[in-house]
Amino acid sequence: MSRTITVASIQFTPSDDMQANIDRVAGFIREAAGQGADVVLPPELFCGHYFCKTQEEHHFARALPWHDHPAVVQLADLAAELDVVIPVSIYEKDGPLYYNSLVMIDADGTPLGVYRKSHIPDGPGYQEKFYFRPGDTGFRTWQTMKGHIGVGVCWDQWFPEAARAMALMGADVLLYPTAIGAEPQDASLDTAARWRRVMQGHSVANVIPVVAANRVGDEDGQVFYGTSFITDQTGEVVTDFGRSEEGVLVVRFDLDLIDRDRAAWGFFRDRRTDLYDILV
Questions:
Q1: The CN hydrolase domain covers which part of the protein (predicted)?
Q2: Catalytic annotation, residues
């Protein structure tokens, strides 16, 4: 029988109440699992409002050690109950250091470790360098009970090097939890289409499905544009949300078929690493 994986993306509007958000995400995970999902992806930093719009010291109190984070502890129990893999995006405190992190929880509830967001943006409405140290884990993939998964976090999704690195590490699918929307400095700038296109490009160039999960709604004047989606290995969007819906997207993939497609296209066969020194 072919190897398969069923992936799901959650899109919703978080409140600024951590427990309420964990409960809502748990409900969406149950819904996705009921549709056969093996892996369920919530959005970036779903435990509260996106707090990086401005530089305010009191927001550092939102960060917690990843082992003890309520979202990790509670969703680990849910993962074991439902037999699903859950990548959990959190604000992590590690001694005096602060990271935008993701904890991969396997389908038996075991936390497999942490990935710390590698690329940290800094601009109007997205002042993350004030809150997050650049990640020190390097890119990571996870051999879970349901498949080999690569995860980048938000700004990571714009960098083709990150997608290629995870594909070279053996990922079956790439996941990108996100918090993106309006650009406060330019009300006419809407990045939703190019946000989607760059990840479709990663999908094409690596012959791999991509799952993107964004928040949606108005958080104190900053509007997040949703448009979460899942591509197949050709880069085609096979299911997506608009700018207002909440819910789950669920798609099943044949991993053996995708492996054959990847081999046939020859992107990895024809790489010229002897010419790529300029990249570093």
A1: 5-257
A2: 44, 117, 154
Does the model's pTM come out above 0.85?
A: yes
Q: 273: how many CB neighbours lie within 10 A of its CB?
A: 7
Q: How far apart are CA 254 and CA 266, in angstroms?
A: 19
Please name the residues in contact with 2: beta carbons below 8 A apart, sequence gap of 6 or more.
Answer: 254, 255, 256, 257
Tally of domains within the chain: 1
Cβ atoms of residues 179 and 44 within 8 Å: yes
Mean pLDDT of all residues belonging to the chain: 97
Give the 3-state secondary structure of residue 137: coil
Question: pLDDT of 72-130, one tens digit each?
Answer: 999 999 999 999 999 999 999 999 999 999 999 999 999 999 999 999 999 999 999 99
Domain enclosing residue 140, as ranges:
4-279
